[in-house]
Fold this protein.
Amino acid sequence: MSTQETLSDKSFSADLLIKALALSPSPAAIYSDENMLIHFANEGMLALWGKDSSVIGKTLMEALPELEGQPFLALLREVWRTGKDYSVHEAPAKLIKNGIETLDFFDYEYKAITDENNKTWCILNTALEVTARREFLQQIKEKEEREHSLNEEMAATLEELTATNEELSSSLRQLAESKEYIRTIIEQAPVGIAMLKGPEHIIEIANPAILSIWGRTESEVIGYPHETARPELRDQPVNNWLRDVYQSGKPKINTEFTVKLRHNDGLREAIVNSIYQPFFSSNGEISGVLMIIEEITEQVLARRKNENDQSMLALAIDAGELATFYYQPATNLFSGNNLLKSWFGLASDENLDLSVAISAILPEDRDRVSTAIANSLATNSDGNYFIEYKIQNKADHKIRLLQANGRVFYDQDGNALSLNGTLRDITQQKREEERKDDFMGMVSHELKTPLTSLKAYLQLLQRKGVQTESTMHHTIIEKSVKQVDYMNSMINGFLNVSRLDSGQMHIEKTVFDFKLLFSEIEDEILSTNHSRNFIFRKSDDISLTADRDKISQVLHNLIGNAIKYSPFDTVITVEYATDGNDLKISVQDYGIGIPEDDQQQIFDRYYRVKDQNSRSIAGFGIGLYLCKEIIDLHSGKINVKSTKNEGTMFSVILPIDGKKQIK
């Protein structure tokens, strides 16, 4: 605990202490910083120096240049550096008083006042002029020779000596109180402190903090040599360090030192910062070693884990060929890793503001990106940032399509501090998707005609087959028609993807009876699927404003998925209900479920769940993508809730009047 904190605890302020020193009859001064700036001097000290208050605020050597060549400044600086007090009796000092150089003798003390970090905060200088006392002792000898003639002078001198002795007693009491005060500070210090006396390092003081680190009680160590009290340090370097410090007088400082400490009946490995500091007696001889220990095991392990995590993150970013960015709205600073700067055609050491980065974006995308950044930083934003845009490299003029994904970080008051995220070059990915879409669109168109003809032939066979009584014949034709319908549905899905990308997929909203559509879908499913147990729950009549065919397509897709991903003889529940101005439709199965990591991506184009149980199930990953796009075009929302190996429920929410935006 620092001196300031202790005084505050006792309801004393620095001002009160200064006033107390100012009223003290004993000369006192306070010096701050290593140059011994005179922060305070009471009337007694000014009189002792032969100066007035104008010297306050000056350095000691500026105020008393006559001290040049005398040891006082060097002693003060040693006290400042080591934090060790210094006192001396009957020391000579040359001072200039009233323009005359005088030689006087003083008892004085320099006391270092330290803060919580054991760094010197200031030095308190107390002094007592003992020139008269010294002369008096000489006079005593003379008085013995002239006893009869000097009786009166002797009585006065005895009176003065009595007063001096009272002051000395007071000083001794203050010194004892100071020692107790230092002991109290050591006891309450947040770091471990121990004082070891003599060449055997007898443990004189060990505060609770260091006892906790050692795994010892006070009775186990106080009064014992350090090496005896702590046998667990055998074969460790600590005791050798103590001997070296005691013999050389040079401190030993260790940072993040690993040591084995006592723990219960065994040992534990700890990481500590430690200082072994020699302390000296008044005659300058080494009398012991001050041991200061701070255990930092948890902090170091946490830092090392964070460093490892950062290293792994950097490896992941490099492996994924991701550019990282950081934007600070308060300063408009925009920075990123070297990959980002290479994409933008910037030097690796070039500093950016946001306008420089925006200028690399193609003109048709700039306003959209600026708006997206502003929206993510707005007070009512959820802090997420996601956008795709094109940039052109300033150096080689290469155009890239980037996908930005980021998040805003806030201070304690909810103000946006920064927008951090990653950029991914999806140029090649988009080209491959476009080629795939073009191919599927072309193939779908080419397959449409022969597939329509094939279905017509099958239907013709089906009509002619009515006249026969062959059950196998009917079954084969029925299964063939079902497979043609499945292929037709798949081709329509591909065509819808192509139309969606080209902006040609239109929603033709009409008002229709949803309950009737629901019943039609129920009849179709129940007549063609006999391997699952279906529950269709109808509700009230509803007039829905929507594209009837597209909504039918969504329901068929969701029910088809439930059939594909659930075992035979399990239950599939399809139901709807109204909620205010909204229609909620749900499809629940008790199948293999969807892993949590996949649930946020199953609506992405071509995405298929990477699960061992679903690898054998056919599909291209466009069904749910189309469902979401159709529902989005209806201003609705589609959600999924799923638990692995327990089942999945898809929910569709649509505005009944076709206008309201679902949030």
